[in-house]
Amino acid sequence: MDWGKRDGVGRRRGIDMLVVAGAAALCVTVGFAQTRGLRVYPQLSSLAFTGVPLEGRLPVLVAGFAHYGLVPLAGSALLLWRRRRPVAVAVLLVLLSTVTTLIPAALAALFTVASVRSARTTAAMTALALLPLPLYVALQPSLSAVPLATAVTGGVLVGGAVGWGLFLRALHDRGEQARSQALLRAEQARQRERESLAREMHDVLAHRLSLLSVHAGALEVNPGAPPEQVAQAVGVIRSSAHQAMEDLQQVLGVLRTPLQPEGARPEPPQPTLADLARLMDESRAAGMRIDVGDDITHRAAVPATTGRTAYRIVQEALTNAHKHARGQDVRITLRGAPGRGLDLEVTNTMPTTGHSQPSLPGSGSGLEGLRERAALVGGELAYGREGQTHRVWARLPWPA
After folding, report:
1. Is 163 inside a domain boundary?
2. Please, are residues 128 and 120 in contact by the beta-carbon 8 Å criterion?
3. Pick from 46, 112, 181, 286: CA 20 to 30 A from residue 127's CA?
4. Which 3 state secondary structure label does DSSP give 189?
């Protein structure tokens, strides 16, 4: 059983009963004031019991009790259906208010219509409630201050009820809009987080798995290799698999970590420009020939974001070389200084058309993701094939 929903229904019922009781009490009060000649809303037809003698007038007393007691109570009871049928209840009570003292209940119904229905419906109901006012004044045999005061009082009451309903509706709509915007912002934050984690998993695991595939493929192609070469390849496979598992556990640990109050997850340890040497050693161990041209001054001053982005670009370029240009030479060029920026270029020759060795599968989104990563840090990246050479070039910011 949904206790929260049940409690909500109970609260609404309690509020509805209070509204009915309050409206009935006000209707009786208005009826009593009307017997003293005070009107707050025009009545186009009414029964007059003021000044009727009590002796021999029992039927008149019974009729007066019904008119000023039972009718207000029964009319106010219609407000129990104001949530399900607000327009119908409002129309009925407004019409009855022209002949009885049900104007407080009618105002409550008008408030409900203004707070839950469209502007067009609210305008129509307001016009219906205001229509008796000019008719009442026009039907007076002689224009005096009393009919005018009654009409003005009725107009003020109708306007107040409708205006209050519209005000609460505006507050509700504003709250709904704020909640919708909050949900949209949360969804956008989750989407950015998913994209960041997907990029991280691609950058971290693709390189390790490509090394595994290269060494396993070498064993498959050359099953009769000397034992020391087999042992070396198996050792690299075991080391790469172990490192890949550790990298995967780091990423999964980030996924399992709850969101912090500010809505961000702690990032796993990130590589820096100093880790490029280890990255290239791993590729060399897999048989890749790498030539490096390093012309970076003040290497220790490279910003962490720039260094991490440069590492990811080189990592993705080497991964693609493992996949699509296995056994080909790779050239890495690094240049930069504070105030000039960091330029890097990775080129590799492409295999000839008759190359029989199959390439490894890829998602096709790695370099495009790196272009977005470079743009996020204020840099730029380009890649493409130039003849028999594939080139990846990037320029990253390095403030003075």
Report:
1. yes
2. no
3. 46
4. helix
